[in-house]
């Protein structure tokens, strides 16, 4: 039971926080853009001329997005913020502000909520996001946390799902499948999310990928600033699902190549031991919060150099087929043996029965 009332709880969770450090300062005098923050009926935010707002919302629900054995409270808070920042990164936006809606059962400990907020603010501060408000309610059973994030992007420069064209190169900004493997490890081993010290480093990396994903804001900004990004999506439901969204929004056919997918040694090691198919985890696992998208084929080397210069990952994983091969939008996979087959439109889907990555 929270031992303070609603208003006490809000003060407890948000008071005394140092937040945020801006990532990219605007023109002289824009400050952090918060004219009115927490404490009034709504926040008042300054807009910058030459920019458009980018707004997104994602929710986390017990047993769907986390279980006590898979996530600490700190991790739940961190990931709730990170999944939203990832959607801003997918648009090529600069994250700026967030509001947080929390519904808490009466028997939930205040200390757990404080840990959740520690994680939430840790992620917000890391990406320069000011938490400017929210809402707090009681609820009959399981806690939910919902974040609405606001970013900004130079006018008409947002990276859309619909911008892929024939001849484009398809990229991902890092290895995939680690989060799904981390989830499998936590569920299968019955390993408590609170007791990881004994795990080998590679296993800890899988668990960290699941609990503390790192949204790829800098990657999105490189693609906007250079003007070389053509289309983009973030990988929340799995690469196959996100590639399908790009293909359908753009009206094109994407061909991914198995041998080009970046494979992390922690993933292949765990998959081997646990009897899982690493390709299934990479394509259908989800919650990677890496970016996938396209650039013009002739720009791929230049983009690679820009990413290399920043020490960021950029992996070519396929291309968009020529117009004459694109009657119906879709995604193909060229397998290791050279065969090419349609890739199932499968991934995490809230209202479908079978969600297992290794099905
Ligand atoms: N309840 C809702 N009301 C209005 N729009 C929604 C709702 N749920 C999702 N959307 C919109 O549908 C689109 C797809 O949502 P989603 O698949 O959750 O995207 P993502 O995977 O990037 O989070 C987004 O534009 C999102 O804003
Ligand atoms: C206990 C547990 N079971 C399964 C999963 C896997 N999982 C839950 S939601 C999800 C997809 C991403 O969440 P969603 O709400 O669809 O985010 P969005 O696509 O809107 O960003 C995945 C892979 C998990 N994280 N925890
Ligand atoms: Mg969503
Ligand atoms: Mg998204
Ligand atoms: Mg989803």
UniProtKB/TrEMBL annotation:
Lineage: Bacteria, Bacillati, Bacillota, Bacilli, Bacillales
EC number(s) given by UniProt: 2.7.4.16
Keyword terms, alphabetized: Kinase, Transferase
EC top class named in words: transferase
Name of the gene encoding the protein in the UniProt record: thiL
Name of this chain's protein: Thiamine-phosphate kinase
Superkingdom, natural source: Bacteria
């Amino acid at each position: 039971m929270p031992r303070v009332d609603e208003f006490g709880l809000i003060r407890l969770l948000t008071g005394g926080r140092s937040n945020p450090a801006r990532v990219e300062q605007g023109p002289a005098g824009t400050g952090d853009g918060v004219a009115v923050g927490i404490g009034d009926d709504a926040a008042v935010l300054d807009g910058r001329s030459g920019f458009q707002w980018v707004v997104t919302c994602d929710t986390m629900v017990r047993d769907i997005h986390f279980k006590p054995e898979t996530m600490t409270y700190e991790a739940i808070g961190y990931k709730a913020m990170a999944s939203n920042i990832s959607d801003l990164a997918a648009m090529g936006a600069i994250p700026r502000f967030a509001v947080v809606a929390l519904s808490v059962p009466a028997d939930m400990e205040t200390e757990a909520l404080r840990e959740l907020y520690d994680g939430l603010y840790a992620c917000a501060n890391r990406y320069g996001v000011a938490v400017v408000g929210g809402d707090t309610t009681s609820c009959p059973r399981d806690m939910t946390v919902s974040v609405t994030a606001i970013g900004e992007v130079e006018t008409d420069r947002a990276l859309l799902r619909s911008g892929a064209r024939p001849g484009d190169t398809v990229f991902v900004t890092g290895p995939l499948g680690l989060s799904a493997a981390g989830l499998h490890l936590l569920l299968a081993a019955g390993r408590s999310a609170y007791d990881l010290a004994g795990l080998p480093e590679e296993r800890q990396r899988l668990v960290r990928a699941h609990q503390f994903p790192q949204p790829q804001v800098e990657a999105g900004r490189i693609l906007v600033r250079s003007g070389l990004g053509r289309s983009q999506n973030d990988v929340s439901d799995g690469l196959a699902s996100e590639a399908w969204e790009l293909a359908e929004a753009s009206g094109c056919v994407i061909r991914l190549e198995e041998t080009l997918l970046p494979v992390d040694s922690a993933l292949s090691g765990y998959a081997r031991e646990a009897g899982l198919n690493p390709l299934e985890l990479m394509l259908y696992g989800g919650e990677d919060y890496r970016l996938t998208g396209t650039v013009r084929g002739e720009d791929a080397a230049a983009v690679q150099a820009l990413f290399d210069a920043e020490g960021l990952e950029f992996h070519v994983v396929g291309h968009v087929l020529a117009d004459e091969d694109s009657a119906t939008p879709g995604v193909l996979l060229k397998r290791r043996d050279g065969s090419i087959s349609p890739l199932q439109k499968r991934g995490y889907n809230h209202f479908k029965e079978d969600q297992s990555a290794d099905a």
